[in-house]
UniProtKB/TrEMBL annotation:
Keyword Calcium included in the entry's annotation: no
Lineage of the species this protein comes from: Bacteria, Bacillati, Actinomycetota, Actinomycetes, Kitasatosporales
Superkingdom: Bacteria
GO biological process, one term: regulation of DNA-templated transcription
GO molecular function: DNA binding
Alphabetic keyword roster: DNA-binding
Organism the protein comes from: Streptomyces murinus
Protein name as catalogued: DNA-binding CsgD family transcriptional regulator
Pfam families according to UniProt: GerE
Amino acid sequence: MAGRRAEQHPHGADRLCEAGDRVYAQAVRRGRVPRVEAEAVPCLLELALLHPDPDDMDWLVPTSPQEVMTRLLRGVYDEVSESQRRVGSAVAAFEWYAGLGQSQALAAPGGGSAVRVLDGLSRIQAAMDEATQACTTEVLTVQPGGIRREAELTEGLHRALALRGRGVRMRDLYTHVARHGQGLLNYLELMGDTVEARTLDEVIDRLILFDRTVAFIPANADRTMALELRHPALVEYLVTVFERLWRLAIPLTAPLPDTGIEGISHREQSIAALLAEGHQDAVIAERLGISVRTCRAHIARLSETLGAASRTQLGVRIAQAGLDGSGRGVPAAREASR
């Protein structure tokens, strides 16, 4: 019986089936649902989204959306070393549960809402300004997307200067591609030793943390909506994610490590590893913060350096060279590059 149920509902709490979505939402709105109405969606019981009402076993009561959100993010925390992309999935599910839970929002310490949806750029900027004014110690940020545009840097410059004036320390994470943006270099020179920057091949979506008490993350793809998080468990989770990425990152003042393979740059090594995972050109470009055209130019150079005449052959040569992340085959790669 359990096996058949798992086959009918092969999903987790981050992506409910249509029936589960409907019944759980109804349970949240009403406070409980008859057990008979949940018989068609055993996944809700298996995922602990519904549980028996101790006062009347014929009814089921929902686990609060806030508890589900916390559980989802805790699960991502356990897997963050395996795949940073899981954070994006959790944020999408987080937004859905937050919408259901607005009427029952958790209170943050000291009052106010633990999760607040900010709709529109003006509301986001106002909330960021408020957090900046209250910040006294530290700001942590993750800035994806490659080279930072002048408009992006200018939009947040007044906040950064206000923080510098109060002696607030800042740590910023970027992709390696951001190293090539003159605007970022000018910004860091202006901020002096107030800001420390490091880079990675790829980072999670945008994240801003003030004093480890309030965090801002995007709530939709075009970043016209954001979530303001003040729940201590959620903020602590995001701080842990940042610190783990920070330890893996390379200081902006230090050069990127050499690949050890003649003719193959660090970026091409990163592209080769993502190709080996089976990703398409557009996905690789987005994750590394470069254009699809630039990505394809690097793939062409990889093919030429490794002597591959087709994508299939390129995959074989990448594995032989150890560029798939296995670390094996470097001598063969050096031979191929001659």
